[in-house]
Specification:
This protein has seven helices and five strands. Strand 1 and strand 2 form a beta hairpin. The model has no long low-confidence stretch (mean pLDDT 96).
Length: 185
Amino acid sequence: MDTEKIEAGIRLVLQGIGIADWPGVQQTPTRIAEMYREIFAGLDKDPRKIMTPIKGEEYDEMVLIKELPFYSICEHHLLPFFGEAHIAYLPKKGEIVGISKLALILDVLTKRPQLQERLTKELVDIIMDGLKPIGAMVVIQAEHLCMSMRGVKKPHAKIVTSAVRGAFRDNPKTRAEMLELIQKR
């Protein structure tokens, strides 16, 4: 990440807004460059390398991790979006992954400029490719500040995306079970 270019760009933005000489913004270019290094840390990581099955375990029922909080940055306006992800899979031959691995994969994917639709698809595809489960499903709901603060100005509106593979697509009962489980608080 080229922090010098980021700082130069932010200086231009501050000049364009007309506040470059304000005392409180003198360190803003450096702060933003450091912030971008942190919030875009997923750009140089491969989330597929995290998906490693646990050896010797046998479990053949649904695995669901729900209400995983996340934040990301919309690539269209560079404004945050944040919400919760719900991730489920049905192991094949009892092959499971450590549940923290699913949260780590979500973190890598959300720490890059992102679209919620792509995030949802990438997450389910990594599970399918890495575990080869009978099926997988991801549901993400998020508030996008680009929709809350500007444009249509609809704060608190939730965007919901889902990606469904295998048994979750083929069997309506399996999909309904997952959706029922994520609705229970």
